[in-house]
Amino acid sequence: MRTDSGNSELAGDQRRVRSTAAQRGAIVAPREASEPITGSPAHTRALRLSVLRPDPGVVVVRMRGEIDLAAVPRLTELIRQRLTAAVLRAIVLDLSEVTFFNTAGLDMLLHAQRRTECKQIPMFVVLGTGPVARMMRLTGLTDRFISRETTAEAVTELRRRC
User: Fold this and answer.
1) What is the pTM of this model?
2) 129-139 average pLDDT score
3) What Rg do the C-alpha atoms of the chain give, in angstroms?
4) For residues 90 and 121, is the Cβ–Cβ distance under 8 A?
5) CB within 8 A of 100, min separation 6: which ones?
6) d(CA 100, CA 95)
7) Among 71, 99, 114, 147, which residue's CB has the most CB atoms within a 10 Å radius?
8) What is the distance between the alpha carbons of residues 49 and 62, in angstroms, rounded to a whole number?
């Protein structure tokens, strides 16, 4: 007969320490391969997209989370789909809630702008005050895009134009 009372107490202490560390937001390595990694939840970093249609022919793509090399293909495809829509008059990219933005995201924006220019469709960009605005300032590309402070401002201007 085997008793593991000492080991189970140790395991319980380890679980409490790990649980406390996870509550503080620390990333804790799994004890076993089947145990999930705890810490900062991935959903706070992952790119989340929402598409709004405030007016006929106007599409607002709102992005939250990280725009990096892994997220760009999904985002590029979404924008491509919106640009091939039958009755698209304008597109607004709301990047104000993006938490990480690197050169892959910048390349995606420049590509989207070229596509909208070829189709003669205005593209408004809501930069916000975070990493996207910082990247635009650092690269000197702020004036390259039609930007507005909020999505509402962009949509209001589009309504005035038509």
Assistant:
1) 0.71
2) 94
3) 22
4) yes
5) 45, 65, 66, 67, 68, 131
6) 10
7) 71
8) 6
Q: Contact at 8 Å (CB) between 116 and 84?
A: no
The answer to whether the CB of 135 falls within 8 A of the CB of 106 is: yes
Among 44-48, 49-53, 59-63, the minimum mean pLDDT is found in: 44-48
The pLDDT tens digits for 84-130 are 876 889 999 999 999 999 999 999 999 999 999 999 999 999 999 99
Rounded Cα gap, residues 90 and 58, in angstroms: 5
Could you tell me whether strands 90-101 and 58-67 are parallel, antiparallel, or unpaired per DSSP bridges? parallel
Q: What is the 3-state secondary structure (H, E, C) of the chain?
A: CCCCHHHHHHHHHHHHHHHHHHHCCCCECCCCCCCCCECCCHHHCCCEEEEEEEECCEEEEEEEEEECCCCHHHHHHHHHHHHCCCCCCEEEEEEEEEEEECHHHHHHHHHHHHHHHHCCCCEEEECCCCHHHHHHHHHCCHHHCEEECCHHHHHHHHHHHC
